[in-house]
Amino acid sequence: MVTTELEKKKEYYRGKTLEELQQLDIREFAKYLTSRERRSVLRNFDVVEKFVKSSREKQSRNKPIKTHLRDLVIVPGLVGMVVQVYNGRVFLQVRITTEMLGHRLGEFALTRKKVQHGAPGIGATKSSASASVK
What is the pTM of this model? Predict the structure, then answer.
């Protein structure tokens, strides 16, 4: 069996192509999620549906989509969009891809940076306590 280039590039999520998933209702898509995400999507169905609709409208008007909803589960209606997610200090730009389906927006806008320590100060060690201050 010979596969073409298009078949290799098709992206799947739990055995379904992106096109098949986009035609599903959000409640039907929830069946393919893990139990925690499924529960979140079904409980907040109205919020997820409103966010998808409003983001499509804003994107068509070339407005940036800014949100504080870090716990929003990514559904097929959001794939391909660029969303700015608040990390507690600034809005970080996140491009939503197929691999992100079922994850939450906050996972892609990190809130903490890697700690970068400076040089130790005077008195930090026993040997530097007796050093002269210049």
Answer: 0.77
Write out the residue range of the structural domain in which residue 48 sits.
9-110
The predicted-structure confidence for 65-76, as pLDDT tens digits, reads as follows 999 999 999 999
**Region at 61 (left for phi over 0; alpha for psi -120 to 50; beta for the rest):** alpha
First to last CA, the chain: 77
Distance separating alpha carbons of residues 111 and 71, to the nearest angstrom: 13
Inside any domain, residue 121 = no
Contact 131, 122 (CB under 8 A): yes
85 forms beta bridges with 67, 92
Question: What is the CATH number for 18?
Answer: 3.30.860.10
